[in-house]
Amino acid sequence: MNEISFDNNWEQLGKYPIVTEHDIVKIRQLVRHHAKEARMGIVEQTRITTAVSELFRNMFNYAEGGDVLIERGNIDGKNALIVTCIDQGPGIEDLELAMSDGYTSGMGMGYGLPGTKRLVDRFEIQSEKDKGTIVRVMKWR
Amino acid sequence: MSEKIVFEKAKERIEHIEDVLSSVAAGDLDVRIEAEIEDDLTGVEEAINILIEDLTYELKQSKKMREELEEKLSKIEDQQKTIIRQQDDLLELSSPVSKVWDNILILPVIGTLDSQRAQIMMENLLQKIVDTGCTMSILDITGVPTVDTQVANHLLKTVTSARLLGADCIISGISPAIAQTIVHLGIDLSVIKTKATLQDAMIYAMRKNNQLTHGKIKSDHLSETEETE
Ligand SMILES: Nc1ncnc2c1ncn2[C@@H]1O[C@H](COP(=O)(O)OP(=O)(O)O)[C@@H](O)[C@H]1O
Ligand SMILES: [Mg+2]
């Protein structure tokens, strides 16, 4: 779980900064658009859009923002949408704790990370204290 | 003898040139060199005058350009102010609370529910509950495309706050896709009364309202009665 996989054959669809709350909404809409383009159904679209919304909000809330990379690629023969969130924030010390239902260090509900994992087909997270956090989610049809 | 006079004259003229140049350097562009005698120095004097003319023209041009730019900038600033005002209006407009029945308030939410809007929405609803004394309210989220944990949290808080003021709050318009997503997120919305559509919520609220006003059933028995339907 503590590794992020890379593949040179993925096609980059765009890289965007998340700085303001408006960016969260904007890029989230863009992800929905790409999901639609990938001919995902309304449930699939809603899932990936909600999942990235959680990740964007975490970057906004805990890491003073970050970058979002949207890619398209082939995973195990399936057409996948790959969204990677990269921040240079404080990092997560205890990943297991952060990934558990109901844990929040702030005022949240504590369901963002574990919920996101349940909403996508593949979830990868890598974090280092004082360095930052990378979360990659994949959704296929 | 005459050579000396010319020299004296030349010295005077060069001093005059120096004066004019330092005036120009100090920003005075109205000064010009007055050439009385025509000789080798006259060319220099005229060249300097032309230079001052050119400089004056350039300065005028750049001043004009700056004024034009400032004008454009202030126009853009005005437009920006208008847009921000419109956005604020939109914030207000997009969470209109209306009283549809004696005792029922409806708040349709359209668009994205960020923190700022959620806050305004909650305040509007609670204020209206206080102002009207209504004990039933419907929060319709048909127009909200994404419900993440933050939005769900706002909804829960709104419902809880309304309840503290003595008003029931029904959430309507949760689409099947959003319902599934909420379940996967792991959020428990079972403490909230939800209805699929605004219409369902209205019917529910009106029925409950009737029962309340006709005193057929005590309100605390009501929820149980509804649940068994
Ligand atoms: N990008 C991040 N950088 C630093 N800490 C994070 C990041 N994302 C999540 N966290 C930590 O993990 C915790 C759990 O996150 P999450 O499951 O989204 O719940 P919530 O956001 O409601 O607190 C957060 O409270 C925070 O401490
Ligand atoms: Mg979160």
UniProtKB/TrEMBL annotation, chain A:
Matching InterPro entries: HATPase_C_sf (IPR036890), HATPase_dom (IPR003594)
Residue ranges occupied by any Histidine kinase/HSP90-like ATPase domain in the UniProt entry: 45-137
Alphabetic keyword roster: Kinase, Serine/threonine-protein kinase, Transferase
CDD domains with a match to the protein in the record: HATPase_RsbT-like
GO molecular function, one term: protein serine/threonine kinase activity
Transmembrane helix is among the record's keywords: no
The UniProt record lists the keyword Transferase: yes
SUPFAM superfamilies: ATPase domain of HSP90 chaperone/DNA topoisomerase II/histidine kinase
Name under which the protein is recorded: Serine/threonine protein kinase
Organism: Draconibacterium orientale
UniProtKB/TrEMBL annotation, chain B:
Key word Phosphoprotein present: yes
Coiled coil (UniProt feature): 52-89
GO BP terms, alphabetized: signal transduction
Keywords assigned: Coiled coil, Phosphoprotein
InterPro entries reported for this sequence: Bact_StressResp_Reg, HAMP_dom, STAS_dom, STAS_dom_sf
STAS domain residues: 94-205
Classification via Pfam families: STAS
CDD domains referenced in this protein's UniProt entry, alphabetically: STAS_RsbR_RsbS_like
One cellular component term from this protein's GO annotations in UniProt: membrane
PROSITE patterns tied to this protein: HAMP, STAS
Keyword presence, Coiled coil: yes
Record-annotated HAMP domain positions: 13-60
Protein name (Swiss-Prot/TrEMBL): Polyvinylalcohol dehydrogenase
Species assigned in the record: Draconibacterium orientale
